[in-house]
Design a protein that fits this description.
Blueprint (H helix, E strand, L loop, with lengths): L4 E4 L4 E7 L6 E8 L2 E7 L1 H22 L20 E13 L4 E8 L15 E6 L1 H16 L17
Parallel strand pairs: 1-7, 4-5
Antiparallel strand pairs: 2-3, 3-4, 5-6, 6-7
């Protein structure tokens, strides 16, 4: 399969959402720009870790630039858009900041099942999405909401619970 490489320098939206019933949900990271969609498969733990990392990153930027990034998810459309057709499964994500543009860059790398001894020969996809701090703060809040909307007791995930009376 050919390597996917996207560089979206100013996205219109970015979100994390799920499809499926509790306990069998599939997590997606999705972004859009100029009517185009890019959807990626992620793990629940990745959504949680991304939420935490973005929160800390944006808090540091707010402190550095002495202004607060406040968002209200009610005012934003954070729903997944159709069609939900993932380009690839994400293995790693990173955050960067461009001071000149005042944009946060979310970098996501495709999961590859290739032998790690062949790192230089790996043909994995990469996407870089340039986002505002407000978009990233909203993504952080949306991601943690998606994670927390699962089963109330995380010990129940993937397990059958027996009740004795």
């Amino acid at each position: 399969m050919a390597k996917t490489e996207l560089e979206w320098d100013s996205i219109d939206f970015i979100t994390i959402g799920t499809v499926g019933p509790k306990g069998k949900r599939t997590f997606y990271l999705q972004a859009g720009r100029s009517g185009r969609l890019a959807t990626f498969l992620i793990e629940k733990e990745q959504a949680w870790a991304l939420s935490e990392a973005i929160g800390e990153f944006v808090d540091d930027l707010d402190e550095r630039y002495e202004d607060q990034t406040a968002v209200d998810l009610i005012d934003m459309d954070m729903e997944l858009r159709e069609p939900i057709q993932p380009l690839f499964r994400i293995s790693q994500m990173g955050l960067a900041y461009n001071e000149d543009e005042r944009m946060i860059i979310l970098i996501a790398q495709e999961f590859s099942a290739q032998d790690e001894d062949d790192l230089e020969d790996m043909d994995v996809g990469v996407v870089r999405m340039w986002c505002t701090r407000e978009q990233m703060r909203a993504l952080s809040l949306q991601a943690i909401d998606a994670v927390n909307s699962g089963r109330p007791d995380p010990k129940q995930n993937g397990r059958i619970i027996y009740y004795w009376t």
